[in-house]
## 1
Amino acid sequence: MLEILDKGGVILWIIMGLSVVAALIIIERLIYFRKIRGDEEKMIGRIKSVLAKGHFDEALSILEMNPSPIANLMRVGLEYRNFPPETIKDMILDAANLEVPKIERNIPLLGTITYIAPLLGLLGTVTGNIKAFGVISRLGAVGDPGLLARGIAEALLTTVGGLVVAIPAIVFYNYLVNRVNHGILRMETRVNELVILLGGNKHEIQTKTPAPDNA
């Protein structure tokens, strides 16, 4: 492996470095999305059950123990539960704007790698060919086949390296972008559900409040 990287030159080392960065981003994001998805379903079920009983403090405690984008939005909604539904929704949407960058974390960098890797491979191809033709121009003929072969090897290896890194990176990038989009849509759905739920609980509390005795 080291011999191949050495033949590919500095550019191939850079491409391999980008592959490590891309792999770390992909693994971290996959773990993140899997974790918040699993925790979210259980948490929302508990929150709905607790809110149906009007136990707001208990609901806040559950949300604090289960940090996630959805939990943060629900916590904001509960904190402003005594405000009109329009105000509750506006505050939750403001909180959602702060959560989106957390969901998109490092994904733009992965997208950049998908573009840079094949370009670096092309750059390695050009520089490798320049070296190969430089040998011929200096010697007038292929006096040392090893020197010519080294230039050609660098040209081919960097091209292959750039494509090997870019192809899976593009696949995972598109997948993660899709997960982000679904996550944002899911947050919007949860916002509407929470506003309706809090509005219903608020109305229920108001109807249960005894009227003042005018006697």
## 2
Amino acid sequence: MRLLILTQYFPPEMGAPQSRLYELARRLKEMGHQITVLTSLPNYPTGRILEGYRGRVRMKENMEGIRIVRTVLYPSKSKSLLPRLLSYLSFAASSLLIGVWGLGKQDVVLIESPPLFLMPAGLIMTKMKRAKPLMMVADIWPDIIIRMGRLSSSSLSAKAMLCLERFCYEQASAIALTTPGMYNQIRSRFPHLPNVTIISNGVDTRLFRPDLREQKLRQEFRAGPSDFLVGYCGLHGLCQGLEVVLQAAGKLRHRTDIRFIMVGDGPAKESLVQMAEDMNLQNLRFLDHRPKPHIPPILASLDVSLMPLAFRLPGAMPSKVYEALASGAVPIVAKGSDAALLINQNNAGLTYEPGDAEELARAITKLADNRALCRTIRENCLRLAKRFDREVLAQRAAETLTAVAEGKPLPPVSW
């Protein structure tokens, strides 16, 4: 099978889409499929083109046998809608105008959304390459933008995006969502669509594992052997609602045995750092973005891994949940998400109401004060992680993609 993956986000950038698509592409390549990735010059989440890629309009790379073609875009990490829209549209245009040429015939074009605006470009590419389009939807636009309060549901922009969403879905050979909640949402809104499935995110259990726990690393984070280390590792973005972590740390400032770390970068980090300084939080440290190989020991060295969301978001499943499960770092997850449903069903973590710092602080305290409970939940986490090993998930994805390429019925949905 010849597969073209069209995505604005790909390594060396860090993030859930980047990791998910790279890991899938690598394993499909190992299975013997021909994989090409058409993506942007790396710039996420800093909004600056990375060193070594600057000044380029189009460039080719080879990443473990995967052909990578990168095209220019307008980079931005602005919280404002217009600069972000320009970033999305600029890559959609450059990928179509200068990226797709010379890539050869393809059997399937996997179009990653968001951004939704990449879908029309992907559909044109499928015509050019005589391929079948598969829409890979990690966040449902414009629904999530409306829920974030960034767009009014009655606005002309929202109505236009809804029309675009419907058109693109109806043109696709198949639509793949990453969670059951998203699958159910699309099924209920578009019951006439013939091929809707789940291609879940997951974790490399050989990379993320509990035996990487390091006391030396914990000491670097100012956590002693008996201290309880709580961490957030990931994008400091707009929909994570990370202010609640700082507020919970403030409520627990009297607990000298509970320490907090926040690892990563993003558009909200500057304001969060200022907020922590204003609150004089001595029990919380911000750490710079770390390369991916540095993350597994950090997660394994945590007692709790936080999965905040700014609001209830049905269908949401942060990829950090899978990594925390495999690392044995007990997840505390925002309610109203698929992540919360998963850990509640398997007693593999605790939950709190988004934005409720008091409830988050109580959940942390419950685990810090009952280490036996924490150990029990940790064992449940490690068992659950095996269901989402990337090797297992890649095989399921290969079966789905092959069925799309051959025009056959999709295999049964599994999550």
## 3
Amino acid sequence: MGVGEVALAVVYGSSSRYGAYAVAAAVEHRLPEVYVHLVNWGRVNPLEAVRGLAERYRKVIVGISFNSLQVPYVAELVAELRKTGALVVAGGPHATGDPVGTLLKLGFDVAVYGEGEDTVVELVRKYAESGEYRVCGTAYTEGGKVIVGVRGRCVDLDSYPPYPYWRGLYCPMEVMRGCSGGCRFCQVTYAFGLPRYRSVESVVRYSEEALKRGIRDLRFVAPNSLGYGSPDGIKPDPVKLEELLSSLRRVADRYGGRVFYGSFPTEVRPDSVTEETASVLRRYVDNRRVVVGAQSGSERVLRAVRRTHGVEEVVNAVSTLTAKGFSVDVDIIVGLPGEEAEDLEETIRLAERLVAMGVRLHLHTFMPLPGTPLEDSEPSQLSPEVRRRLARLVGLGRAYGDWMKQEEAARTLYELKVRGLVYRRSERLKLLRLRMC
């Protein structure tokens, strides 16, 4: 059987769009004979779409990209999809964070572990040729255990287009993947490892493809925008950063486009903000708002969650950026594990200090994400007084965010573990076996 007799349905929700586009681009780039059908489950019934493909193709692969909050919906969907005879493949942050629960509780045939491009391309090719789907980079069951075939090398971002531009589909371009910070509440380091970068030439090439087709605003994704090109992704390389942004500026100007960098959907670390990096940013970008990740106003909590900066670096970053003419949003997380009343008070005081400097706060509450060191921490409940003070900042227009919804979501995540749909770390390790491949 050739690959032309196989269809791949990439099923995703709005929060997984970037990853879905990257997978579709990778498969169509490497395996143009494969029909890739993008299914946004908010617009199309995935079950009906897969049934339609099953009538037209001899083999159908269904890849579902999802996060942990979508587990209950996905579990029901997988049960129905398996009745179609399709191979059902999990991807996205939950599959990497909890491959054991993904297979044993949600019913997937196989899960993509970590980066998806190389693995999905190999899986589709092998499944077409021989029916094999347990390829390097996947998790699968064997003898009552879950085996994870860990790839010995990272994906070369330049090997794949960032999105399927030939379909007229675009999203913010990923220019940096991985992080050396290892923050204990964040999945990035644990899912993708150390940082690596899409080259300037590749970024410019695909930006120009978008601009040619009418896209006017260029946006980018990176764990730390100012870390582009540096060895650790934290201590900046201003020369490499300027090479990237000046090149983007030139191509954007040719097409009347705009460059947004260091703003939504990404941020900058406070310990990457210097006079030099702020000047480079101001010289080339169109956005006048920058997002800085502070996370806490407590030095003790910052150390506990493995941030590599202190409180004063946050204040200095804000001062440096505002002096260059930027407005600044600062991300704050409340309810971090181990946070005591004194720590929370220090965070609130920092928030109020930043507001006095003209900052707008982006408020979050802690989420126990699978695959992170803090995944089994029970979410705390904010006191009425803390809620009142945060609500006051929102009411003044100096803060925003879904922090109250995130409180509910965090409790939902924790209860998924209580129900057994998501495995705790200690339980997962008993059933997990890693194999290098």
## 4
Amino acid sequence: MAGSFYSVQSSQEVVVTGWGCVSPLGGNTESTWSRLIAGEGARAPISCIPVEGCRVVEGAEAVMPKIDWLPKKSVSRLSRAARLALPAAREAMVDAGILGSDGRSVFSRLEMSLSTTANGMELGEAFLQGVWAGNTRQQSSRVSRYPAQQQVADLQQSLGFSGPAMVVSNACASGANAIGHAADLVRGGFANIVLAGGFEALCELVYCGFDCLQALAPDDCRPFDANRRGLMLGEGAAFLVIESAVHAAARGAKIKGRIIGYGHTTDTHHITQPDPTGGPLEICIRRALDQAGLQHSAIGHINAHGTGTPFNDSAEAAAFARVFTENSPPRLVSTKAAIGHTLGAAGTLEAVFSLLALQTRRIPPQIKTTTPIPEVAGWLAQPGEVLEKPVVLSVNLGFGGSNAALLLAAV
């Protein structure tokens, strides 16, 4: 089945009416996109968490926006994850015209489909540090705000709505899964409008875990490069307002893009390594194409997962080479070379970048890659490239063999 656990047969057209993001390149969508298109990268020494003793001490910290619409005391209680999620969600709601002048949602009930891997993990880490140091200050607050659903409550309370919320924690495919699930809800008539998003904050557990796996690049992250040496961790958040075309038209909303296909598969190969043949990813992409009713030749650009690790990039390139067999393949880019791998937020950030490419007809350049692997050597996007076709494929892979593919289209 190409969608989520729902058997989706409805013909409801799924559209995007707003988006927002916070990334290592900027505190909002405009600043992030302008720097991404300019070919800038965000790699720098990590300062938000202790990394002494780690093999690698660099990554991509987010540009933290001010949350000046809430009382300072309320903001002080928020986890770093929530401080990333709230501004991105608020920007998306403003963009879609569903946030009132009072800063509250115009809909009292608004479903959410969210993604993350670590939630507010830094609160748990701070609690343990407090225990070890014998410091009881703020410990009760850290415990009470540590549960995995806390960011859901933060979003609902701060932006003035309620409703069902699903949090996908499916490793690095989570963001695309959350968007795909939201699209299935709308396509199947289970919801008229859904706020979908992903958020991820750097934390010691995750950073040191990847460092212990020796998965972090000691220098630049070089996706699809013959000399790639690992990934760069980043953090950020991105949200999209997803609704049916009928619902958007009824409220006079401007449609900014469409979600026309979604596929996902599981490798059953290895807990951390993808199937080296790329076969399950190929099936995933073809499922998205089948749902959209398109041939592969309709796709003009791929925002790849492209972590810069030896196993991921070779498997992903193998799948692409089998799906896209024509002489003029899509222009390929992994934006992780610029903003790092944002884990649970990766799929949502990259979906926003894909929609911006459709809207502006500009493709971010592939940076840091100097010796492309043969399978995609002629595919990588160069500075100043124009998107020639109205469909973009965004792909994400995750630990446990998760594969997710989104097909996004221009209006």
